[in-house]
Amino acid sequence: MLKSRRALRSGVFVAALLANLAVVPSALGMIHFTLGGSMSRNNIPYQTYLSRAGSASVAMDLGEYFRVSYSHRQEFSNTAGYRALESQPGYYGEYLSATRVISNSVDFNVILFAGDLFIPYLSAGAVVKAYYSDISSVEGSETSSFTLPASPNLGGGIGIRLDRNFSLKLSYTVSPGLKQEPGGTRKEILDSYAQMGVTYQM
Q1: CA dist., res. 43 & res. 50, Å (int)
Q2: Which of 28, 58, 87, 107 gives 123 a disulfide partner, CB atoms 3.0 to 4.6 angstroms apart?
Q3: Which domain range does residue 96 map to?
Q4: pTM
Q5: Tell me, what CATH number does 111's domain have?
Q6: Count of domains for the chain
Q7: Angle, vertex CA 144, rays to CA 139 and CA 149, nearest 5
Q8: Nearest-angstrom CA–CA distance, 196 and 15
């Protein structure tokens, strides 16, 4: 009899717990996965330019209008062609340039309007970026790499609902970067990134 009462009480407790969880708004704790990518190939005089980029992010709702996210992005660019030789003025030589940029960011997002179709938002956070570059030509080769410490990452975007689980995401972010100039001089500059991706929420 005692065991059956304990089992009954346990059953009532579990049922009550499940009932309480059932009334929690579905927006709380919802997880969003976003994938995006791009590729382009352009031919200009003396050069062929190939660019590829891909990103993945996961975000979690903190209520109806706030969201925290983590994003990983990689960009690859290759340039092949001919350029003027410094050692032989008037002559051109083949060269190949390969660049890779890796960035990881954590952002806090504020949803401006949670509509049935459009969901505009603003974001702010921190990003760490690493740059890798390889240049080879008939005059020699050069390899360089450097990493920027955590710096501000600001942006915004809009989500467009496609159905209950999928949406189209358009985003734009800016963050500090560095520009290498002849003579080894580095100049601070703003990097920007625009992306279109597909988000799945669960």
Answers
A1: 9
A2: 107
A3: 2-201
A4: 0.76
A5: 2.40.160.20
A6: 1
A7: 160
A8: 43
